[in-house]
Write a structure and sequence with these properties.
Radius of gyration: 23 Å
Strand order of the largest sheet: 1-2-3-4-5
Helix content: 40-55%
Oligomer: single chain
Structural class: alpha/beta
Length: about 500
């Protein structure tokens, strides 16, 4: 495995005016001034959106298909200009389909507020960082736990970087960085562990509404490696197309400010404005987090100086090991949450301290469950364990059920059906109509929608398969035709 130094090229571009000043910060007052300056650089609309996101209010706007296609064309044009002699170009030569998938590129556009130039720069940085961590041979390969060495896995199992099993008030994932747990391996091992965790978060269907970061260094949980590798981690966190909706830094010692400063001095104003600093004891920091929509008890550290609660993290780790060893996901490393996965068997060789004996679920059950909402015990899966977060329908989702007609996502589906019904009816062959309906499903998913139904055995929401979603779209078109026919007959009868 290649162990090159992370590249000097940086995305996002470093702030030019305050970056030299922020390195000299010694206290909360200077940081507050820097954050206030970042906020003043935003437009009024962006300030409002930033404040809403940071306080747990999640808004996702429907995306116009023509708008997306125009932005994708602009992104491709920028890539063609800047890709010569870059790692991106090498990846394109290795596997052009891997780097050019529509949903893969859309994630970079969404992360960068649909700015094609910034998205193109981030894509180049993504491949540079990936090569520095895993080598050229894995540029166009899905990274799994099998690609991590034993030291990487040991670092991952410490839980210093983990996806918490609860969501904030905006139904967003919370990623905890507890640097006091960074007791294994080197900064390079830690960087590969962070990469794997962030890619796992990106695969979740909730990633489109953004994620929350909590950096915790209070009491005995201060960074034991004295900031080693933090510039790596900042570069890594912002090269992966996760939309950071809020970054909370919990600190009780001014000497620990090197943790966020290594990151904040590199980010543009619209990200810097999302940083919030909480200075005080564990209890004071937890109360402050509650004010931003992060539930009480979400952080797996209960008392000042207490050992962290890692049961949920190890449950997640065992699940990921089982899935990575038995399932090869045949699509992008930065997989779009709603891309239809196809599963193929892979050698079940385990290189982990955990001795697992697992019975794999069916492919259908894997596609129905969120990977961070499944519990793996020795011998079986428990698909919905106590205390693990559940799917919550969002406004853009299409829901099945009695009250579905008034749900905003269903109303939007009817609008899409009305726009394309004539094209559907013009097709003569049944398989052509099925293919057309499936394209409408993929269009809805590419703009952030999920197709959800309640599981009758648990009364919880699960995602349906593409076949079920396609049938739902076809039924909507037939119902529209039937309704229009009845209305026409009613008018003629008068």
């Amino acid at each position: 495995m290649a162990k090159q130094a992370l590249p000097h090229r940086s995305w996002p571009p470093p702030c030019t005016d305050e970056s030299s000043t922020i390195q000299m910060c010694r206290g909360m007052e200077d940081i507050d001034k820097f954050l206030a300056a970042s906020m003043t650089k935003l437009s009024v609309k962006d300030r409002e959106l930033t404040l809403e996101e940071v306080h747990g209010i999640s808004r996702t706007n429907p995306e116009d298909l023509a708008f997306l296609e125009d932005k994708l064309d602009q992104l491709d044009a920028h890539l063609q200009k800047i890709k010569p002699a870059t790692v991106y170009e090498k990846a394109e030569l290795l596997n052009a389909a891997y780097v050019s998938r529509r949903n893969f590129r859309l994630m970079f556009l969404r992360c960068n507020r649909y700015e094609p130039r910034a998205a193109a720069e981030q894509m180049l940085m993504f491949f540079e960082v990936k090569r520095s961590l895993f080598g050229t041979a894995k540029l166009t390969k899905d990274i799994t736990l099998l690609d991590l060495n034993d030291d990487d896995k040991e670092s991952l199992q410490t839980g210093f970087c983990q996806i918490l099993p609860v969501r904030d008030n905006g139904n967003r994932q919370i990623i905890l960085f507890a640097y006091g747990l960074r007791t294994a391996g080197s900064p390079e091992n830690d960087a590969r562990a962070i990469y794997y965790v962030l890619l796992s978060a990106l695969r979740s269907s909730e990633a489109k509404v953004g994620v929350i970061s909590v950096q915790y260094a209070v009491g005995r949980h201060k960074d034991v490696k004295k900031g080693a590798g933090h510039e790596y981690f900042g570069q890594l966190a912002f090269c992966i197309p996760l939309r950071w909706a809020g970054v909370h830094v919990c600190i009780d010692d001014p000497e620990e400010y090197h943790i966020p400063l290594a990151v904040i001095r590199r980010v543009p104003p619209f990200y810097a404005a999302k940083f919030r600093f909480h200075h005080g004891s564990h209890a004071e920091c937890m109360r402050a987090l509650c004010g931003y929509g992060i539930p009480e008890g979400a952080i797996p550290i209960s008392l000042e100086g207490a050992e962290p609660f890692l049961e949920n993290h190890m449950r997640w780790y065992r699940l990921r090991m089982a899935l990575d060893c038995h399932c090869t996901v045949m699509h992008n490393d930065c997989v779009a949450p709603n891309d239809p996965p196809t599963f193929g068997t892979q050698c079940s060789r385990l290189r982990s301290p955990d001795k697992l004996s697992v019975t794999m679920p069916s492919d259908d059950s894997l596609t129905r469950c969120h990977t961070d909402g499944i519990s793996l015990t020795s011998g079986s899966f428990n698909p919905r364990p106590q205390g693990i977060s559940r799917i919550v329908p969002l406004p853009e989702d299409v829901v099945f059920g009695e009250t579905s007609k008034t749900h905003p996502g269903n109303v939007r589906l009817q609008q899409v059906v009305s726009e394309h019904a004539a094209d559907y009816e013009a097709l003569e062959k049944r398989n052509e109509k099925m293919d057309f309906a499936l394209k409408l499903v993929h269009h809805m998913k590419s703009t952030g929608s999920r197709f959800l139904i309640r599981d009758p055995s648990t009364a919880e929401w699960v995602e349906v398969t593409d076949v079920q979603a396609r049938n739902r779209v076809s039924k909507a078109i037939r119902n529209r035709r039937r309704t229009r026919s009845l209305a026409r007959e009613s008018r003629q009868g008068r």
